[in-house]
Amino acid sequence: MNKDEEIRMLAARFMAGETSLDEERRLYRYFSGNEVAADLLPMREFFCSLSAMMPLEKPETERKRQPVRLLSRQTFIGIAARWPCYWQWEACCGAPNGRTIARLISIIGT
Predict the structure, then answer these.
(1) What CA–CA distance (Å, rounded) separates 102 from 71?
(2) Torsion angle, CA of 36/40/45/46, rounded to 10 degrees?
(3) Given this model, what pLDDT does residue 90 score?
(4) Calpha distance 75→96 (Å, rounded)
(5) How far apart are CA 57 and CA 7, in angstroms?
(6) Is 49 within 8 Å of 28 (Cβ atoms)?
(7) Hey, how many other C-beta atoms are within 10 angstroms of the C-beta on 110?
(8) 63 DSSP 8-state letter
(9) In this predicted structure, what is the pLDDT of residue 106?
(10) Which pLDDT tens digits describe the chain residue by residue (110 residues)?
(11) Which of 9, 51, 107, 110 has CB atoms 3.0–4.6 Å from 28's, for a disulfide?
C-alpha cells in the first residue's frame, strides 16, 4: 500500500471518528506538505484549518504532578491536639449533636 492509499484510509477513519491523535497528526502533516495527491486536494483546506488548532508535535516534557496534600502539618497537629477535648466533652455531656458540637467549637476555638 502506498502513502496516498494509506492517507485515504486514515482520512476515512478520521471522518468516522476512529483515529488516534498520532494518526491525526500524520494527516495534518501530510496535508500541510507540498506533495498532496490531486484527488485529496479538496480535503487539504479542511485538514490545514484543523491543524492550526492542534499542535503537530507532542510536548517534550510533561509536568510532573505534585502529590495532593489534604491537610497541612500544622492543621493536622491542631486537630490531633483538640481531639482529646472532644472525647472529654462527649463523656461529660453525652453524645454530640449539632448544638453540642457548636458549643465545643466555641469553647475550644478554631
Answers:
(1) 22
(2) -130
(3) 59
(4) 23
(5) 19
(6) no
(7) 6
(8) P
(9) 72
(10) 688 889 899 999 998 989 898 888 888 888 888 888 888 888 888 888 887 777 655 555 566 777 766 767 777 777 777 766 666 655 666 655 566 667 767 776 65
(11) 51
Q: Which residue has the cell 502529590?
A: 67
Supply the pLDDT for residue 59. 57
Dist. CA 65–CA 67, nearest whole Å: 6
Under DSSP, the state recorded for 66 is P
Taking the CB of residue 28, how many other CB atoms lie within 10 A of it? 19
The SS3 call for residue 18 is: coil
76 touches 46 (CB < 8 A): no
Helix-strand-coil percent breakdown of the chain, rounded to 5? 65, 0, 35
Do residues 104 and 86 make contact, with C-beta atoms less than 8 angstroms apart? yes
